[in-house]
Amino acid sequence: MALPFLPGNSRNTRLGKERFHKSQHFDYTNGFPMLVGSEKPGIGGERLMPAWLAFDKQVISIMPYFQEAVQEVQEGRNRIRKCKIYFYLEDDTIQVVDPEYKNRGIPQGTLICRQRIPLPPPRPGALLQHLPLQHQPPGGAVLPHIHRDQLQGVLLNAPAEAPADPYCILRQQLEDSMKPLRPYERHDTLRHFLDHDGKVLRFYCLWDDTESAFGERRELVLHYFLSDDTIEILEVVPAQLRERRPRPGSCSAAVFCLHSVRGLHPVQYKAPPAPKPPRPVPPYNGFGSEEDSLSSCRGLAAQAGAELPRKDGTTDPVDQERLFHVSYHLCDDTISVIGGKFLLRCRVKKPGQDLFKSELSEYFTAPDLYVGATLCLGGRSFRILEADEFTLNYMQQRADEFPKANVGNILSKLRSVPEEKQAEMRKYLALSDPNNTGSIAYESFRSLLTGLDCGLSEHEVLVLGRGFWERPQPEPDLGLMLAVAQDLLRKNHFEQFPHLVREFTHQDPEK
């Protein structure tokens, strides 16, 4: 039992000491008192920090054992008891604890409460240097040292092993005998089946039966079903040997395949198959599409090709002035031309390609369509005059895919223009903007870039104009706003107009 920290109940720390001098921590420097030695020891050369603060929460754990004699017990005359000794550095106290075991039949737990244990006279209380030695504790049992934590500055004994306790061994055997394996018990395999249903491991095996009479080497396939842990072994019969053979199911083959799951590596028992020689593709014969002709060469069943509308070119001036609507479908790279049902939705080849060749033809893609481009569709040439707002925004948002809509590339082309043309451009801009407002009309800007032959297409000029276009902000229409507000109030059956007038007056008292 611990005593209260009162005078007379605590030990005198000055007993046994002969030095009581006080270290000098302050001195005068240039006539001023200053701290000159904060690391100097305290009274009698001791450290200034007390032990309870320097060694707070620092405990040395030692795991010893002792042999306790027992009487009138058939399991043996003694028992090996393993315990733990805790040495608290803050006040040099010791606590001995015996771990609890199930159905041991002897008192367990704390054997010695936390206290200072004196050594036999004439030596004073317990010290750290005496812990590794064999000593006689109050219980009268021998506590040889087994192992303890490392502590700097203290020489430790080599760790040892504790002998086995016969009683603990007997108790473990009894507990194991009370829990035998019961294969007749029913296990719920529904979750295992649901988690692994349809999952099968396949292994390629070889049954070498050449040592027996009429034996041969047979290739096998082993299927391991994870849903119910069952095995199926099938024989790989060559195409030229279709006679029915008995299904092999020897234990050696199954054990070999099961052990392959445990970490064995596959064995190469036959030469790898020779690589197939490349098969040349014949040239296109003109029937159907090129993709269908190529598929018929690679497969056994030919498929019917899709018919494409074909029209010859014309020089009719009426057709030259007609306007058409060209649509490009991004999902499948197809083009349709609407203007009297001119061209149905299909992929269109680029002109100037050989018809009969082994390679696939090139088709029109999205970057090929821009304002000012000329496309050959259905045997006629179409010039793109303009595009809708969605198309222009789509191309500008994906400038890396559409070079004609990349503002950076357009500005790079303008910077590479010779100095003479740049001087003409400055002169033209000054004449087009006499009031020095910083802006000109789009038609003048377009005429400037197309007239100087800067290498820009119609779409690039349009993108450049859209990028620097000043959009005037429309003035707010108070009448329109008032009409919309009145219409909304009327539809919602609003009747609290006096409250609304008071709120307007409060928010805008000047009107």
TrEMBL record:
Keywords: Cell projection, Cytoplasm, Cytoskeleton, Repeat. GO terms for biological process: regulation of neuron projection development. InterPro entries: DM10_dom, EFHC1/EFHC2/EFHB. GO terms for cellular component: axoneme; microtubule. The keyword Cytoplasm applies. This is EF-hand domain (C-terminal) containing 2. Residues 197-399 form the DM10 domain. It is found in: Cytoplasm, Cytoskeleton, Cilium axoneme.
